[in-house]
Amino acid sequence: MSVRPLDVVRSVKVKLGLLVAASVIVAITVASIGSAGGVPVLLSVPITIVLALAVTQLLAVGMTSPLREMTHAASRMSTGDHSVRVTASSRDEVGELARAFNRMAEDLAEVDRHRRELVANVSHELRTPLAALSAVLENLADGVTEPDPETLRAALAQGERMTALVTDLLDLSRVDAGKTPLAYEDVEVAALLEAAAAESRVAGREVTYEVEVVPADLVVRGDTARLRQLVANLLDNASRHSPPAGTVTISAGVGDGHWHLDVTDEGPGVAPADRERAFERFGTLTDIDGGGGTGLGLAIARWVTDLHGGTIRFTEPDTRGAHVRADLPLSPTPAAPKETPMTQTTTATATAPPPPPTLTDGTFGDLWPERALPANIPVLLGAVGVGVLAGTVLPFHDLGLAMFLVLLAAGGVLFAASRKRRDRFTMACALLCVALSSITIIRDAEWIAVLCMVAGAGLCAVGLVGGNSFRAFVISVFAWPLSGLRGLPWLGRTLRALSGRGNKLALVRTVVISIIAITVFALLFSSADALFAEWVGALVPDIGSEDFGLRVFIAIAIGGVVLAGSYLALNPPEADRADSVARPVANRFEWLAPVLVVDAVFVLFLVAQAAVIFGGDDYLERTTGLTYADYVHQGFGQLTVATALTLLVVWAASRKAPRETAEDRMWIRISLGLLCALTLVVVASALYRMDVYQDAYGFTALRVLVDVFEGWLGVLVIATMVGGLALKASWLPRFGLFSGIGMLLALALINPEGWVAKQNIERFEATGKIDWTYLQTLSDDALPTLATLPDDQVLCALTSDYGKSDNDWLEWNVGRARANSVFDKQVADWSFKNDCPGQTVD
Length: 842
Hints:
The protein is 62% helix and 5% strand. By secondary structure, the protein is mainly α. The strands form two sheets. The protein has a five-stranded mixed β-sheet. Helix 10 (401-417) packs parallel to helix 17 (546-570), helix 15 (504-528) packs across helix 16 (530-539) and helix 19 (628-656) packs parallel to helix 21 (701-722). It is elongated, with a radius of gyration of 45 Å. The chain starts with 11 loop residues before the first helix and ends in a 16-residue tail after the last helix.
């Protein structure tokens, strides 16, 4: 059951105002705490937003749950299940709507019950006279019996029985539909009862009727026709259950503003347990004592008394027989009939509500179905543990062993929670994530470590979802942050399971008492013993310090990220459903013409490249006004984008191209194969341009990274060609993912900053040019290489931070350890120089 803290509020508008106010207050409070604690904006802002959205979700669920329950209940009612009800605890307009919905459901359930009973009972009641009538007519038709008066009277009796039943049903249907308004007038009771008794005598009843009215001139207000119907049905019921030559007594009297009508017979009577059922439709006394009848007479009698504002019931007779009493007002007020057992509401039946809504409901449709995940306490505790670990070891430490431990713990929780952990693709992603995380204990360069962590997070999301297409990969990455909102109902169920059913207050009370006890005794013993005070100070953080605030924010952030990833692992979206079926175009020229146009542009570009190569630098400078170094630098970025766009063109064209015939497939291979081949030439041109530019201006880590990225695009182009130009390349998306991760790992393992330092030193030795300022920005990874410079130049490439990292084991990694070793061995031989030769700036 969802939490509904705003149920006591009587207005939806006020609830919305409170919702906004609560979100703003939470946001301001969290932001203020973060600012006072020195928490970085990039950390405090996301946490503030997430907590504000969490409060919004908590309060909004209670506001919208009745609407969702009504939608769910309406869908079940449309299938014939009228037992569903919604929770109507709210006092606002939505709560009123929920209560009205429940009343409607009760009425529909009652109507449906009557419909089923009516069909069953009418069929039962009509079957007997129809069978008898059919038998008589069959005998007449076959000549078994003669059409004498006795036989015809028997057939007529059966027809009259069916006519009486249909007449009674019509009377009740008019009453039910509200089409039987009462025409009030003065009614002489004695005349009414005598006329009813006379009609019964004419009908051939073998009983004696006695009429008693006190006072004899009693006059009441009522509908004469309906009262006559009431008396007639009571007399018919009494005469059928009386023995031959028995007496039926009809009496009327006055008392306390009412008049009463009593009908007594000498039959077997009605048992107390059956007296109420006798007034139900088809709740016949035939079932009780075999007296016959349609089972509608007493039901009609009750409706007539209800229409007049009275009551009717069986009472205990003075002697043998049955005694029916109807109490009616002397001057009834026109009003709707009172509820009777036929229209009484049934007890509300609880139904399991749909899963509580989240802020992402309806965003993904069938792509990410909501599963009622059970509570998972181990996963919750694992995420909390990772958050506590992160808040303890990460603050005030550079990337190193501490970050690796946190990443390893987080990955372990996610892998354990994953529904796909036995899938080979997921296991491969897990191993690669461990490899990417290990870069934090291998390299000191933050840019490569952060890049590996970002790639590892994306790979982790892909592994948890298990997609098999580029679109599925993108969905997987975006599903992780959305899981933080989508998983809130699951988190609520897990917290309730953690606290235990019925033990929530006890748990809270225990925690509060324990904290108070620890605080009181710790303060007492700390004031009494200095050593104990030191121990307490080392173990207990200073809650008022900035350090503690930062640690709390980091713990919440990391724990929340792991918790969101855990929900993604438990309930991954069906990402491959998003990969829509390809719809080829009808005409070949619709896809072939654009591809050939792109091919022509590529050919023209390669002709321009050939003109530059054969024309030389003079031709280039005379034509464009650029030196060759400026020329190659200007176009590298554009060529990289062109390569990526070419892959997109190949993908789109392969999906739109028809491939039913061999000729269609031939044109796909020729046109797209030519485009891929030309793209490889462009990749080679881009790499050549970067090589020329680096020779002219030096090497940097960014340029090396871009080289690797361009090379990876070239690998994808080759893979596309090998895979049959996307005709049968279902493996291509995962190959592109793993090859990109592999190249990133290779780049990290070769020590890119050390390699860049080496290339710049070799260029300096060959040309006498070097950018000392850039070399000073490199990390400790480059120190072993920079230490190979001559002693009079080595400090031109260093700053005072090189090789002087703290010996904190939480910051340890291979790069820093090597730098410290080099610095400790050679620092005595180094001396600062004010003049650094060959300085260049790009």
